[in-house]
Amino acid sequence: MGVFTKIPYVLLGLFILINYGLLVTGIFRRISARIGKRIGMPVYQPWINLVKLYAKRSSVYHGIMFYLGPVFRLGGGVGIFLFMPLIFGSEYFSNFSFAGDLILIMYFMFFGMLGMALGAGEGGHPYSAIGISRGLAQFTAIELPLTFAIIAIAIQYQTLSLTEIVAAQQGGITHWVLFTNPFATAAGMLSFLGAMGASPFNVVRAPQEIPIGPPVEFNSGFLAVLRTNAALLHIVEAILWMNLFFGGATNWIELFIKSFCVYFFALFVGTVFPRFRVDQSIRWYLKVPLILGILAILYIKFI
Fold first, then answer.
1. Domain spans, the chain
2. Cα–Cα distance between 285 and 138 in angstroms, integer?
């Protein structure tokens, strides 16, 4: 199928995942509230918030780069989506995946963070530099064990193509990386907690405790772009982890179920464990998850 022929299906997939992300956000916010013995917001509240924010306009100006931050952040989520196959074996929903797409996806995971860092740097807030250094330092520590896990998978299957990695896991649950390399799966799932910004690794933004930062500095349509990205990014990351460790999906129902379960893992941990300080989270990622990532490579090379 040609590139231009794929565009309508790519847009359809993007529409489905954004709405699925908003639905999952509403469901999990409701679950979190119930765990805390609260009623919580309606499941449809994320759609209402987006409509309200996109309808507003801001007259505050902090510079072009400040407002390009949310655009870069959304670009990271969309970039991951564009080059990641959704449904294995589907010519329509393979997006623009190619040999070596996993490397490009890893770049896009950091792209949004760098864009937000550049935007925050132009905001003029006296603590922006502190927040930027903490956020980038923590995310670098988070990506380190994930990189080792991906290297182990690439060595195991001799490819950096997500489609080929998913193809190698077909034939039953025992072919999943979860069973063929449990160390890589453990390192990847621990990295997933930080990539999702779930507790105990969310002190960089800590909206309940820090009355500054993107949720306050950005407003109106700019905050709507960030909320749109949050809905999309968390879902595509869940699908990425599903493709890497849990055999991918051969239809939409399987994709929804598997990605929901992967997403739920972050919610479960986030509601049970208290928040780390940034220095604590960095030290933690450089211990257990990093060791698991190294063991994942050794497991493939020597076992």
1. 3-302
2. 9
pLDDT in tens, 127-141: 777 777 888 888 888
CB atoms inside a 10 Å sphere around CB 235: 28
User: Which DSSP state fits 174?
Assistant: G
Rounded to 10°, the helix 220-245/64-82 angle is 30
Structure tokens at 295: 């063991």
CA max distance for the chain: 61
- Cα 119 to Cα 70, 122, 140, 208, 264: the distances in Å are 8, 5, 19, 22, 31
CB atoms near residue 297 (< 10 Å): 21
Q: Which two tokens stand for residue 269?
A: 């941990």
pLDDT over threshold 90, residue 94: no
Give the pTM.
0.90
| Half-sphere exposure at residue 9, Cβ-oriented, CA atoms within 13 angstroms | 16
Q: What is the pLDDT of residues 20-76, one digit of tens each?
A: 999 998 998 888 888 878 888 889 999 998 899 888 877 766 778 888 888 888 888
Vertex 234: Cα angle to 232 and 239 (nearest 5): 95
How many other CB atoms sit within 10 Å of the CB of residue 13?
22
Q: Please spell the DSSP secondary structure of 262-276, one letter per residue.
A: HHHHHHHHHHHSPPP
